[in-house]
Amino acid sequence: MVHAFLIHTLRAPQAQDTGLCRVLYSCVFGAENSADDPRPHGAERDRLLRKEQILAVARQVESMCWLQQQASGRTPLDLQPQSSDEPVPLHEAPLGAFRLAAGDPFQEPRTVVWLGVLSLGFVLVLDAHENLLLAESTLRLLARLLLDHLRLLTPSTNLLLRADRIEGILTRFLPHGQLLFLNDQFVQGLEKEFSAAWPR
Amino acid sequence: MFTAGAESLLHQAREIQDEELQKFCSRVVKLLQKDEPGPDAVDALQRLFLIVSATKYKRKLEKTCTDLLQTTLCSPKCPEQLQLLCAAILRERSPSDGLSLSCDHVQSSQQLSLVASVLLVQGDRKEEVRSVGQCAFRVLESRQPEGPSLRHLLPVVSKVTRLAPHTLHEDQTNLLSKRLVDWLRYASVQQGVAHTSGGFFSTPRARQPGPVTEVDGAVATDFFTVLSTGQHFTEDQWLNVQAFSMLRAWLLHSSPQGPSALDADDKSELEGSTLSVLSATSTASHLLPPQERLREKAFEYCQRLMEQSTRRALRKGDADLQKACLVEAVLVLDVLCRQDPSFLYRTLSCLKALHARLCGDVARARVLLPIARFFLSHGEAAAVDSEAILQHLFSRVPCELFHSPTLAFEFVRFCRDSLPLFGGNLDILKRSFPNLFKLLAWNSPPLTSEFVALLPWLVDAGTAMEMLHALLDLPCLTAALDLQLRLSPAASDRPLWDTSLKNPSCLEASRDPQFQALLQHLLRAQASGTVERLAPLHQLLRPMASCARVVQCAEAVPTLLQAFFSAVTQVADGTLTNQLALLLLERSDSLYQVAEYEARVHRVLSSQFLALCALHPSLVVELARELLEFVGSASSVHSRGAMLASVAWAVGEYLSVSWDRRCTVGQTNRFLEALEALLFEVTQSRPSAALPKCPPQVIAVLMTTLTKLASRSQDLIPRVSLFLSKMRTLAQSTSPSSAYHEEDAGAVRTRATELLTLLKMPSVAQFVLTPSAEVAEPRYHRDANTALPLALRTVSRLVEKEAGLLPG
């Protein structure tokens, strides 16, 4: 199962760029059990911890993506689209996976699968022994749907005020963090349903 | 995309003040309270979501606002957009104490799903998970034929099972198991009807939908699965997909004994007895209790998936799904066999057939990993030799697919997770370290920490030397792999090598036979037991040393070396320790020239050399000849200062009779001469671009070593004292062209003076510089008669007094 899904910025670490990695959207599907902690913990503290865990993952993904791009010899500009008409070849987008040890930052050990498209990072935080092939194809699917339905290719749009559509897509394609074995026809069917319910 | 506009929007959302936020909240309340909330309400909620999620600190929202959000969420006639936004906002604020949401009065499974998405992230302080689970089962039990769709329910149940499996009663699990059997095995094999409204021109008799098809277009031959396709789908076909998606988790967490089923004794007994009974058919399965029936149907489902994966899919997405289904099928079969060993016999035969089919298929190599794991877990019980499978996996897959980051990660994850299961097959893993290193060399950033955990299992006394060479040559391996990719015919449409470096000059040169032999050795798949000196390759591959991938690998090597040494010192005996020490010295000037690589490796090697000496102090005496050679070589100071300092330090510490009786006076004398000559040369020579100046630390260590040696053979004291005073004089004369800064010269002077002082009182010098083994005991330092600081203070005072009394 998926513990969290997030979208964050992917910047190229150029000399003059001193911005921070920003989490643009995150959705956690279940809470970690903090029953072992004897200290009385407030709800606020738990929320703060959760946000910081997500940010820690985003930062790690950013550096992994940058390292992978660098190692393949691609410049950071490759993450920007050439023109808004060109379809983004998602199967060529950098994708990777790494493990998070227990306690760092989540209580249980988890696996992270990430995909870098158009200076955005899409990340799934999974349980430790998930079916990675399924997770990868789900991630690619989510990225494609979000790019299409949020029209992320046109320069003026951003996804900060489009949480409703992101939620709509997630409810159908990753309900409660459940990875689904959807063949092409099922995906088309779900997508038609979504387009009908949410006209562009 | 993240434009400057978006950055400022985020900034605004963060900076909004409480008062303004409260005003905005009241506006939201007004908009939501309208009968028909329009697009304004949606817009306002989107902004509210941004404000709440933009900061990691809690935002204070008025109670009326949050209450209204909860109500809107639960009202069935509200449009989906608003409901989703309310749920998202409430979820973003979680965990939150003021939540009065509950799932007791939900009417539909869709509503339950929304409410659950908020409740399940509260952290289970008020047993929300249990109540959501109970509610879900209530809806499940009360299902009417034309009732609400259960499609929204299964993911909730799956989540609850994952978070809190103990909250479900046995009759509830039985109920769901029965339903899952229906959905998995008996879903309709006819395609669904299109859910379009009639329209003006539609005919009243719609065309009958045909049967579902397989992924290659043929008509379906057996029951419906996730690999069955059609134009439209029926409700139970949707449930089939969801049921399979949650099947593994359900099987694991809902079994009566819990995830870790039977304990070891029971298990082996059962396996032994049931294997003698060929339970090949599933007769009378409808008489089985629900759990067992579910397992039986799950088994049939997996078999069907494996059969369906032999078909050639028409679409790429379906081909990818076939791979994922194969992996899942093997994982489910593994769970089934763990829970009920009677499945083992049937599973083994079909998995062996599957493995044979996949062996030559590079595109499906990742499926081999769960198969190998299955055979490792169950092979022993079934008396099946998993060696051949492992051999194929370790010798073929990394060679062909090291460049795939996800395969590399999965492969290493497989190795790490299966370590307890390897048993007698562990030496296949150990022998295959060259292939595993290929995965590491190509994908070092995500895999370094994995290998640090894996190395202790790979290290073996027999291959330790070869492994150390391999680790030191890891960046060279990265370059060689890049070269190999360029030279091999293009298997994929995209270049897999570093595209920023076009046509390196070594490409042609590498075809030379002398290099070919060395390259073959470097790129070997298994430990060969021999060691080759790869210095010519370092030269050849120099143009590639600036590749980003090579540099990344080089950065990872010091960490790996530390892990290697902490592992190897556990298994190394005296002979191996000596060999390793010699290897360190030899390789320290024979490294692939990547920026800063040599300096970093020297740091690690020099500290590890000392660690080896501490482990086996006789090393210094046994390897005296080689160490003498090292000290005597002129290059050692300038290019390997750190190594030289360690060697000198080790000599100073351990070259004495108290550590090894075989230490002779002649050895001491020879070292003394060598060190003197070295120091002299270093301090006399002028620094130039080719010979950088010798760091003062190295000089200090050399001088200290000389003093230590002298303190042991006291007839050498006058000679060493003379030398030290010469050193002091040299350091005092700081001319503008002198090699040393004032601080460095001062440090050298101070150290020389201290050493000279010590040598004036030989017995004290011996005590300080060559303490007996008792110095490790605390008593040695607490006892007023033997404490070292006291002795030193006494000596200093005495010497000062003496100096004061004597003229000049």
From TrEMBL, chain A:
A Gene Ontology cellular-component term:
lysosome
| Any GO BP annotation | double-strand break repair via homologous recombination
Q: Which domain of life is it from?
A: Eukaryota
Looking up InterPro entries in the UniProt record yields: AP-5_subunit_s1
Any Pfam family: AP-5_subunit_s1
What is the protein named? Adaptor related protein complex 5 subunit sigma 1
Q: Which organism is it from?
A: Ursus americanus (American black bear)
Gene for this protein?
AP5S1
UniProtKB/TrEMBL annotation, chain B:
Q: What is the protein's name according to its record?
A: Adaptor related protein complex 5 subunit zeta 1
Q: Which InterPro entries match?
A: AP5Z1, AP5Z1_ARM, ARM-like, TPR_AP5Z1_C, TPR_AP5Z1_N
PANTHER family from the UniProt entry: AP-5 COMPLEX SUBUNIT ZETA-1 (PTHR46488)
Q: Record the organism.
A: Ursus americanus
Instruction: Name the coiled-coil region(s).
Output: none
Any one annotated GO CC term: AP-5 adaptor complex
Source organism, top-level taxon: Eukaryota
Q: Where does the record place the AP-5 complex subunit zeta-1 C-terminal TPR domain?
A: 450-798
Q: Which GO terms describe its biological process?
A: double-strand break repair via homologous recombination; endosomal transport
Where is each AP-5 complex subunit zeta-1 N-terminal TPR domain found? Answer: 1-280
| Domain AP-5 complex subunit zeta-1 ARM repeats as annotated: residue spans | 321-438
